[in-house]
Each structure stands twice: as C-alpha cells, then as structure tokens.
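EI: anyone free to look at a 140-residue chain?
SC: sure, send it
EI:
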Amino acid sequence: MEIFKQADKGFDNSKGKKEKKEKAVALVEQTFGERLEQVLLESGIAKKVFAESIGIAPNTLSGYLKGAHLPDLLTFTIICRKLDVSADYMLGRTENRNVDRKHTRRESDLLSFYSMISAGRQEQLIGEARAFAKMENRMR
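SC: here you go
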C-alpha cells in the first residue's frame, strides 16, 4: 500500500509532477519485478518456459524481473492468471496473493498446467480424464 500512497503523491499538480510520476512508476516496476521473481521461483516453472507459455521473449521477461519495464495490460493479465495471483498483489497494493476463485488450489494448478500444453495434448488429457472418471464410477 505504501507504493500507492507514494504514487498518489506523484499525480498532484505540484512542481516536479513528471519526476514524481516517474518515481512512482519505478516503484511499481521494482515491486512487480520482485514479486514476479518470487512467484516464479515458488512455482518451479523455468523462466524461459514461462515466457514462451505467455507469448513473450525470455529477454522481455528478464526486463520485467529487473524492474526495467512493465508488461502491457493483456500480458499482465495473462501473467496473473497463469501464476494464479491477484493483480493487486503483483502491483504491491496488498500482501494477499489469493484471487477470488471458484476452484481449489489443486484445481487451479491443474488448469494452469493444462493451459501450458498444446491443443492436441489438451484433447489427449481430456480423453484420459474421462477414462479415469469412468473407472472411478465403476468402483463405486
């Protein structure tokens, strides 16, 4: 929350407005980069694999991690969804990583992995899941 208090100060009409805005943006870039680094580390996903899975170059991801720049809104949304963290957390507005969701953490993990595989493999996985469900139903 402190970052946004500082950022809010940067958008008043006082002298040095541009400098204050640049400072606020730099704070958000730094926070986003640090949090992205931490969440990626905890997820165990290789940076190169993650970058490719969201459609960006590894060096672009590296720029985010270093706090050199921020992703566009679509890429930011994809990052948050793939890593199952709230946008507010990634921007430093809260310490709560959780997204309001309908799924359990394990279901979200499964959906995340599913989204990282090709369409052909997704169809194959769905077929296997159906087979497992049928076996479970027979055992009951």
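EI: The chain has two domains: 2-100, 102-140.
SC: 👍
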